[in-house]
Design goal:
Layout: H1 2-17, E1 69-71, E2 75-78, E3 84-95, E4 98-108, E5 113-117, E6 119-120, E7 126-127, E8 131-133, E9 139-141, E10 144-148, E11 154-163, E12 166-175, E13 181-189, E14 198-207, E15 211-214, E16 217-221, E17 224-230, E18 233-236, E19 244-246, E20 249-253, E21 257-267, E22 273-282, E23 287-297, E24 301-314, E25 323-336, E26 344-353, H2 357-365, H3 369-373, E27 376-386, E28 392-402, E29 407-422, E30 441-455, H4 462-465, E31 469-484, E32 488-510, E33 518-540, E34 543-548, E35 555-571, E36 582-584, E37 586-587, E38 594-596, E39 602-604, E40 606-608, E41 623-639, E42 649-665, E43 676-683, E44 688-697, E45 699-705, E46 712-720, E47 729-740, H5 744-762, H6 767-778, E48 783-785, E49 790-801, E50 810-824, E51 827-836, E52 841-842, E53 846-852, E54 856-863, E55 870-877, H7 880-885, E56 887-889
Helix pairs in contact: 5-6
Length: 897
């Protein structure tokens, strides 16, 4: 309880300091902007009446900058001496950049006083409040206002104005002739209602050019003053963002104990970037630190950087289960506005760190099961530029990491240059159809890389960094496509591939008594090239068939579209010793290494000198293969009385993209037919869709007994299964599906995304609102949407696989489900869980309760069982843009609003 009291007290003090974040709002009160005194002679003609809704200027004014323009929907009246003008009903006055709208406005030319107020309607509601705006400033609203255009003094009552993401409301403010502003009884809040739910009540305050002096100040929630305040406060007025304390979130973790999470300090460095320094501490001895920064330059680029370090301690010191770990994580995301520099883009997505970070830190304290279970990390920093005629250059630094094997692959850099295909024999001034030779297209692409793969523990050691593999690859495709017999699409082409290598290898073999030969590999630096070409051709068509039904109720038709295709490719043998890509293997004593080919003949062993290089070298042997595939789509047509297109029918895709493919190598010595792969997807309803895939092996197998071990083993036989009247053998099969009981949830998510984009495009938002909007756009799944009343969805994945001969069958399947529901319009419950079929138990489960407090977020998150058992309670102030969208940020959210 003491801990809780301390946290509440500290949060109250931080809320009081938020006044400094928005103190400069006093300097932009448009009420006190002074219009220049009208010194021209006024027209005193009594008959000078304006039509309703008309805009009138004094015809005797000679200076356009000194004209007062006014209008009123109801009526306009003048005093007897025409020194005072009265505007009734949606009155409007514009004068030297001032725009003032109210139900009633009066202007006294003798005293230079402008007065505006609203009115009370028949139901007793005060309407038509003054709304005013100065040039280059935001809009403000008040109950009434009065100010002098000459002395620059004025009063405003019950103001409501937004200043840099915060809101001032209530009280009275007075502008003095010496430019000081005296304020009394105003409330500052991040709640965007004229009568806020909470705020800091400023009893009295004086605003000068460089400072604000206020006091007493106290916290007020639901109009109830709390005994938490300051007798006085002094704030400088720098023209930049302010800094402040970030309070930690309390909770308990099963493996690390009680915690205070993500507490620290916020640095408002400038309007373009900020920083957060936070940390977490656990009662069992673990701790973590994080440095995060968000930067943006409007219409140019934006991004964020996160650096995390964690020390975790598990078990009891001095016992066998005691262990510690030190982990870090680096995240960087950068995106460029497409219009900032047309033709040039720069982007970054970096996710790197130690392999055990997610597992040991519970995904950085988020307890996200998907992130904890993942075993791959990847990064990419890319730059691209488009030159004339579509020539594109892309350069990227890449990183991939396997957390289970603890291996890391780096590519520094990966460069691609591509030239769009062009017709060298076609004329830009051609008239009529292309001739056959004018259809020939030529392209060019170049790739360059410099990469290495090593364990994460030895990656940055000198001996490892010296093993980078570098190379270039050039590809020149020449193709031609045309129609044959109207219904067949035919294409043919020649492709030339050349690789540049900067190192090759040499192998030396050694005989081992009573054992297999071993070999030693030497790396030879130096430039070397290899080239190869291939010839290809193909033909495809579409076959349509339709069946109409009259006596099957609403089932009216079935349509089948089949797309068969056949292609042919030929690649010569570039492994001949004379071509320089392969060498014969020798023992240390100079004897050749012999091997047995398919025919049982003893022949010298060859090896590729480009083995293990960046792009490899030409393959061994000739290849002349025929590839084939068949793709199928089946659609059903039903009567649909709810259809609004006018046809009264609805199409349901029963099978989408069900295809089977394979190839046949004409020059292979054995096993010429490849395995047959198939895949497809079906969308039976709006709520249920399924994806499936598999592999078929067309060869028979036989059993034999190993003479040395006496064990039986299977091997493939070069005979097809249908020769024995059998179907090809299924060696791999899997399917997965997602099911949602409320498809409207996806529709509403899309509508919400459109609304976000619309708000962003219309502009008029503060930088704070724009940043909150950007957070939603970057990760919409991290927000709870109260506009979606309920949703339940689950996914299932199944996979069966065996070896080529049907040995060692394995089955894996996973089930995950999640959902949410609005208990009331302000309360939402969310959960996610699953079933672990291997362990026969429930997988990690998350349970959360959210309360929408309009300008606040309250959330209770609970992981009830498992290694990552934990709970936490969060209460945070919410950004005004999220209040309007009824969005609440899930765990781990921080905002300075």
């Amino acid at each position: 309880m003491k801990l809780l009291r301390y946290i509440i007290f500290i949060k109250a003090l931080v809320l009081l300091t938020f006044v400094s974040n928005h103190a400069l709002a006093f300097t932009t009160f448009s009420t006190f902007q002074v219009v220049r005194q009208d010194t021209t002679k006024k027209d005193t003609t009594k008959n000078d009446q304006l039509k309703k809704g008309a805009l009138k200027s004094n015809p005797q004014d000679t200076s356009a900058s000194e004209k007062i323009q006014y209008a009123a929907k109801d009526s306009i009246a003048f005093s007897k001496d025409s020194s005072i003008v009265y505007l009734y009903g949606k009155a409007r006055v514009m004068y030297q950049g001032l725009e003032l709208d109210a139900d009633y406005i009066s202007y006294n030319n003798k005293t230079n006083i402008i007065y505006a107020r609203g009115r009370t309607d028949a139901k007793g509601k005060y309407v038509g409040r003054p709304i005013f705006k100065m040039e280059g400033q935001g809009t403000s609203m008040a109950d009434s206002l009065r100010f002098n255009t000459v002395t620059k003094a004025g009063n405003i009552y019950e103001v409501f104005t937004e200043q840099e993401g915060g809101f001032f409301s209530g009280g009275k403010a007075k502008k003095q002739p010496d430019d000081e502003i005296h304020s009394k009884g105003q409330t500052f809040s991040t709640c965007n209602l004229p009568h806020p739910h909470f705020g800091i009540h400023i009893t009295k305050g004086i605003v000068t050019e460089n400072q604000i002096i206020a006091g007493p100040l106290y916290l007020k929630i639901e109009d109830v003053p709390l005994p938490l305040g300051l007798p006085f406060a002094f704030f400088p007025k720098p023209n930049k963002k302010s800094s402040g304390i970030i309070l930690p979130t309390p909770g308990e973790d099963y493996s690390r104990g009680f915690f205070l999470q993500d507490g620290g300090y916020y640095l408002g460095l400038s309007d373009y970037w900020d920083a957060r320094l936070t940390g977490s501490i656990y009662s069992y001895g673990s701790y973590s630190a994080r440095a995060a920064s968000t930067y943006t330059k409007r219409y140019k680029f934006n991004g964020n950087v996160n650096l995390d370090y964690a020390y975790n301690q598990f078990g009891t010191e001095g016992t066998s289960d005691f262990r510690t770990s030190k982990d870090f994580r680096i995240n960087w995301s950068h995106s460029q506005n497409p219009n900032a520099k047309p033709g040039t883009t720069f982007s970054a997505s970096v996710d790197a760190g130690t392999s055990s970070y997610d597992r040991e830190t519970a995904a950085g304290g988020t307890y996200d099961p998907n992130q904890i279970a993942r075993n791959t990390l990847g990064s990419s920093i890319a730059y691209s530029r488009t030159f004339g005629k579509g020539i594109n250059l892309t350069s990227a630094l890449r990183h991939s990491q396997e957390t289970q094997t603890k291996s890391v692959s780096l590519t520094l850099p990966d460069v691609t240059l591509s030239v769009p295909t062009f017709n060298p024999f076609d004329s830009p001034n051609r008239v009529g159809e292309q001739k056959w030779y004018q259809k020939i297209t030529v392209g060019y692409s170049m790739q360059a890389t410099n990469s290495i793969t090593a364990g994460d523990s030895v990656l940055f050691k000198r001996e490892t960094l010296s093993k980078f593999r570098s190379g270039f690859q050039h590809n020149i495709p020449i193709n031609m496509a045309f129609n044959v017999l109207k219904y067949f699409n035919f294409n043919t082409g020649v492709s030339y591939l050349e690789r540049w290598h900067f190192q090759t290898i040499r192998k030396t073999y050694a005989k081992v008594p009573n054992g297999s030969d071993v070999f030693f590999t030497d790396t030879i630096p130096g430039f070397n090239r290899s080239g190869q070409y291939s010839v290809s051709g193909g033909v495809s068509t579409k076959i349509y068939s339709t069946a109409q039904f009259k006596n099957f109720g609403k089932f009216k038709a079935l349509r089948h579209v089949m797309t068969p295709s056949v292609n042919f490719g030929y690649t010569p043998d570039f492994s001949d010793i004379s071509k320089g890509n392969y060498k014969e293997a020798f023992y240390q004593n100079g004897d050749p290494v012999m091997t047995t080919n398919f025919k049982g003949e003893r022949v010298p062993l060859k090896y590729s000198i480009h083995e293990g290089s960046a792009y490899g070298g030409p393959g061994e042997g000739r290849n002349a293969s025929i590839g084939f595939s068949i793709d199928n789509t089946v659609e059903a047509k039903f009567l649909n009385p709810k259809d609004t297109t006018g046809t009264g029918e609805k199409k349901i895709p029963i099978i989408q993209g069900l295809g089977i493919s394979g190839s046949y190598n004409l020059l292979a010595e054995s096993f010429k037919l490849s395995t047959l792969s198939f895949s497809g997807r079906s969308q039976f309803t709006d709520k249920l869709g399924i994806n499936y895939y598999g592999t078929l092996n067309p060869y028979l197998y036989a059993d034999s007994v190993n003479q040395s071990t006496g064990l039986s083993q299977r091997y493939l036989v070069d005979k097809y299964t249908w020769s024995k009247g059998q179907l090809p053998r299924l060696t791999n099969f899997g399917f997965s599906f997602n099911y949602s009981l409320n498809p409207e949830a996806f529709k509403r998510n899309n509508e919400n995304a459109d609304k976000l984009k619309q708000n962003a495009n219309t502009g008029g938002m503060t930088p704070e609102q724009a940043e909150a909007l950007a957070k939603v756009s970057r990760d919409p799944n991290a927000f709870v949407d109260f506009n979606i009343p309920w949703n339940f969805a689950f996914s299932y994945t199944f996979n069966y696989s065996t070896s080529d001969v049907g040995d060692n069958p394995t089955v894996t399947n996973t089930l995950n489900f999640n959902g949410d529901a609005n208990i009331t319009p302000k309360w939402k419950v969310t959960f996610s869980s699953g079933w672990d079929f291997r362990q026969k138990t429930i997988s990690q489960t998350n349970f959360s309760i959210y309360r929408d407090l309009h300008c606040w977020d309250m959330a209770f998150t609970w992981v009830p069982f498992g290694f990552y058992q934990s709970y936490s309670v969060d209460i945070k102030v919410k950004a005004s843009i999220l209040q309007d969208l009824k969005l609440s940020k899930r765990k781990g959210y921080y905002t300075k609003f």
